[in-house]
Structures are given as C-alpha cells and as structure tokens.
Amino acid sequence: MSATPLLRQFAENQLLSRLQEEDRLQLALSLELIDLKVEQVLYRYQAPIEWVYFPTNGVISAMTILSDGRAIEVATVGYEGMAGLTAFVGGDRSPNEVMVQVQGTALRMAVTAFKRDTARIPALRDLLIRYHTAYSTQVSYAVACNGLHKIEPRCCRWLLMTQDRLRSTKLPLTHEFLSIMLGVRRSSVTDVLGPLQERGVITNHRGVIEILDRDRLKALACECYEAVNAEFARLFPERVPGSGPNPPGRQDQ
Questions:
Q1: Longest C-alpha distance within the chain, in Å?
Q2: Under a CB-based contact definition with an 8 Å cutoff, are residues 153 and 222 in contact?
Q3: Which among 97, 95, 172, 131 has a CA at the least distance from the CA of 17?
Q4: At a CB cut-off of 8 Å and minimum separation 6, what does 75 contact?
C-alpha cells in the first residue's frame, strides 16, 4: 500500500491521529495495514518483539500465563493505543502473551523501524510516554480488580471496555473466551450473564453479547472502569479534528 491511502488509516488510531502530517508521512513509509484474526497470537510470552501494532479496529488482549496453563487478561488494547509498547521502553521480549480478542485491522511496523522513528520524531515519543502511563494504570487496576472484586462487576467492566474499543453494542464473544479473559470457569461466566440478560442489561445469543442498557451496565461495573478512563482522559484531553471517535469512554451509538 502506498503512503497516500495508508495515511487515511491514521485517523482510525488515536495515537497516530494526533501526529502532524509531516510526522505521519515519515511513519507511513514503514507501516503496513494488516488483518487481525480472532485468537491470532501476536506475541508469545518472552518471545522477541519483532513488530509493533497500532489497531484501527478490533481488540487485542495481553494475558499473563501461568506454568499450569491458566491465563488471565491484564490489559486490553484497541484503537486508542498500540501493542508492543515494551519495545518503546527498552525491552526486546514480550512480558505477556498477546492475542487478538476480536478481529479487525492494524497498522504494523517492524520494531527496528519503530525504534528509529520514535528516536527521530519527538511528538510520537511524547504520545507513547503518555500512553505508557495510561497503559500501566490499566494494568495496575486489572491486578487489583482480578484480586479484590467479584466476578459480576469485573465482567461488566470488561464488557464496557470491549464495547468502547469496538464502538458497537454488539460484541462477538463466547462464554469460553470470556472465561479465559476473566480467569474463571466457563460456568461462572454463564452464572453472571444469565441474570444480566434477565434484567434487560444485555442479550446473549450464539456467540454475540449485545449491550442493551449501557448505563445500568456501568452502574454494575466496579470502580476500575471509571478510574482507568479518567486517567486516559487526563493524559489525552485534546481532540484532533477529523481524528475519528473519542478514546475509551465513548462509543458510537
């Protein structure tokens, strides 16, 4: 893909959309648009980071994997950010297993080009410093949430986060996949989603969860959802004309 049509994709990622045109032109020389497929593994735990990804749609999950095979999500990445942030802060191997949660597309860049461009584009470096702070906040709250909060508020928080990144009320998620992300048994997910459906908060049918009442879902979610959103808003308060939807916390209806 040539630089000109590729530049149109920059508006779909909330980091790249904040760059000036001359910086976008530099980056476009090293980026390519790729498809993200469900359950595609972008990084294995402790594997070398060869590429970084700026999602334009879809959702990516960073998971901690224990030696017995159990897994739990510690961060969610969508169009508000990037995957491969460790390469920016000096690491060369992934601290998590990172996989595609919901299919979509991303702008991909080789890590060698990424390091070169972050060194020579101050505006990109500043954005990534701020994003690193926001991402670290998300991870910190995920740790606290997974350890201290009950399954229902955790599940509600997770559904809201996924909706924010998909910008849709319909989430293509199975009970099995949701149980992996939350680190619980599949039956526990069923026990949570059933009552939410009975109360008219969601519908759940054939691998698609549809959010019917976002306000009630937010009321049922734990405080972690609003806390992480507030940190994103503090670090990225500006709006870029023509840059697409807002960062997490608002989605198209």
A1: 54
A2: yes
A3: 131
A4: 61, 62, 96, 135, 138, 139, 142
- The predicted model scores a pTM of 0.90
- Following CA atoms 41, 148, 233, 219 in sequence, which dihedral angle do they give, to the nearest 10 degrees? 110
Q: Which residues 6+ apart lie within 8 Å of 143 measured at CB?
A: 74
pLDDT confidence of residue 4: 60
244: left (phi over 0), alpha (psi -120 to 50) or beta: left
- For residue 135, CA distances in Å to 140, 200, 234 come to 9, 32, 13
pLDDT of the residue at 56: 95
Helix (H, G, I), strand (E, B) or coil at 108: strand
Q: Within a 13 Å sphere around the CA of 208, how many CA atoms are in the beta-carbon half?
A: 8
Domains of the chain (ranges, CATH numbers): 3-146 (2.60.120.10), 149-226 (1.10.10.10)
Residue 78 backbone dihedrals phi, psi, to 5 degrees: -135, -145
Residue 43's nearest CA partner among 72, 104, 85 is 85
Comparing C-alpha atoms, which of 79, 102, 243 is closest to residue 170?
102
Low pLDDT (below 70) residues in the chain: 1-5, 239-253
Integer Cα distance of 72 and 11 in angstroms: 31
Distance CA 52, CA 43 (A): 10
Rounded to 5°, the CA angle 186-191-195 comes to: 145
